[in-house]
Specification:
By secondary structure, the chain is mainly α. The protein is built from 7 helices and 3 strands; from the N terminus they run H-H-H-E-H-H-E-E-H-H. The longest helix is centred in the N-terminal third of the chain and has 31 residues. Strands 1-3-2 form a 3-stranded antiparallel beta sheet.
Length: 188
Amino acid sequence: MHEDANRDGRGAASGASPRSADPRGTGPSGTDPRGAGPSGADPSGADREFLSLERELTVLLRRARANQGEMAREVHPDLESAAYGLLVRLEECGGQRATDLAAYIGVGKATMSRQLRALEELGLVTRAPDPADGRAWLVTLTDEGRRRVGRVREARRARYVSQLAHWDRREVAELARLLHQLNRVMEK
């Protein structure tokens, strides 16, 4: 159960009970709080599972965006939230071409160029000619960028260890495996 759920496990994203969200007893956006759709018809079991998945992913992504902004500010007060993922990718994979970074993150070339320019101005990344192709450039973390990103990631890892201390390590590994599998499917 996520922290936005009320006592009986049904989600209430606003913090209010589903009945208080709408005097007719429907939840947010006109859906029945028991999982039925707007028409009041109970969805099939498979539909209910996918609705639960959508709800939990929505909460997870909302929290992830907030956490990403927090982590970005910890790296550098002027760092855009969206750029944090680029820094993590560079830390994990080393030098990358801007086009590869754009494809990985899922943004256009113009957006990537703007983000990389900002990261360079902050002294977190540098660009150098790609030894394999003199027409292309490789983006890498600077020593300062590596130090800052490493510090923030280590603090985040320690926080996960603390928050999930009651989980079995196999559950953590399974969650990571399933999220990786989901991310691969979403790339397509």
